[in-house]
Design brief:
Blueprint (H helix, E strand, L loop, with lengths): L2 H17 L23 H21 L8 H16 L1 H15 L4 H24 L4 H12 L5 H124 L5 H23 L3
Helix pairs in contact: 2-3, 3-6, 4-5, 7-8
Keywords: Coiled coil
Length: 307
């Protein structure tokens, strides 16, 4: 028989053994009557099998209806055991490959065929575990449960329900605060617009008043200049009037002196004329002279004290 025929026969024999419930009678020391999986294995191999058993028990516990009552400490152990189980997949594959090679007479191809489903399962399990962030989410939840003193799922559900109610109340308060804030903002914007309008109006009035003040200032400066000019003119007029008064006083004195001189000359002439006239005409002439002297005296007083 050729080598290929032998391999085909071995493969058919392995499939038949798998169809009979997995009792591989050609194996040596893997499954025995009254024994269990892993008898005669090394301690490391026993650890791998124990991790698998823990994972199985964990799955059974999680699938149980009372799994919600598992304590936080036990759940943490289950999560860690499952993570260890997933992490030991590669070692499990190597151990299975070594056990099959050691205790069976299967060819390499048959061994690969036997191990391929297990390898695919291990790879898919590790991939799914990585997609779930390697149990990080569960550890975070358990850490939060520990920080808040929550021991099981019922307490967690109650806490979440209470938090949900508090969150709804908080959301309502936040919504109410948002509405109040919007109302206050609208009111503030309205008042701000009114103040802006009043400020613009006051600014316009201030500009008008400034223009008026500038006009008044210009007018004031013009009035001050006019007052200065008038004051200079008044001082000049006063000085001129004073000079004219002095000149008038001087002229009045000269006029009076001239009149007095003329009067003296007239009296001298009259005296000379009387001296030549006959004596009978002297009394009448004396009366006329007395009247003329009295009239000259009155005119002199009027010149000295006018009005």
């Amino acid at each position: 028989m050729s080598q290929q025929s032998k391999k085909n026969a071995e493969h058919m024999e392995w499939e038949q053994q798998e169809g009979d419930g997995g009792n591989n009678r050609g194996s040596k020391g893997i499954v025995e009557e009254g024994g269990k999986w892993g008898d005669g294995l090394e301690p490391e191999e026993q650890d791998v099998l124990e991790a698998a058993e823990k994972s199985r028990k964990s799955a059974a516990t999680l699938g149980d209806g009372n799994s919600t009552q598992v304590s936080l400490r036990e759940r943490k152990k289950l999560v860690l055991a499952f993570a260890e189980f997933v992490g030991s997949g590669e070692k499990l594959m190597e151990d299975m490959r070594e056990q099959i090679y050691r205790y069976t007479n299967l060819t390499a191809r048959v061994r690969d065929v036997v191990l391929k489903p297990v390898q695919q399962f291990v790879e898919q399990l590790a991939k799914r575990h990585r997609e779930l962030d390697s149990g990080k989410w569960e550890r975070i939840v358990m850490r939060m449960m520990r920080d808040h003193g929550i021991e099981n799922f019922s307490e967690l559900q109650a806490a979440i329900s209470g938090a949900g109610r508090k969150e709804r109340v908080a959301d309502e308060e936040v919504e109410k605060s948002d509405n109040e804030w919007k109302f206050l903002q609208e009111n503030w914007e309205r008042q701000n617009d009114e103040l802006r309008q009043r400020l613009e109006k006051a600014r316009a009035e201030a500009e008008d008043l400034q223009l008026q003040l500038d006009a008044v200032q210009i007018e004031k400066e013009g009035c001050e200049k006019e007052m200065e000019r008038l004051e200079r003119a008044w001082k000049l007029e006063r000085k001129t009037a004073k000079e004219l008064r002095q000149m008038m006083e001087q002229s009045t004195g000269a006029l009076q002196e001239a009149r007095n001189t003329i009067g003296r000359f007239e009296r001298i002439i009259e005296c000379m004329a009387r001296a030549r006239e006959p004596k009978e005409r002297r009394p009448a002439q004396n009366a006329i002279e007395a009247i003329d002297m009295e009239r000259d005296s009155d005119e002199s007083r009027e010149m000295e004290y006018p009005g």
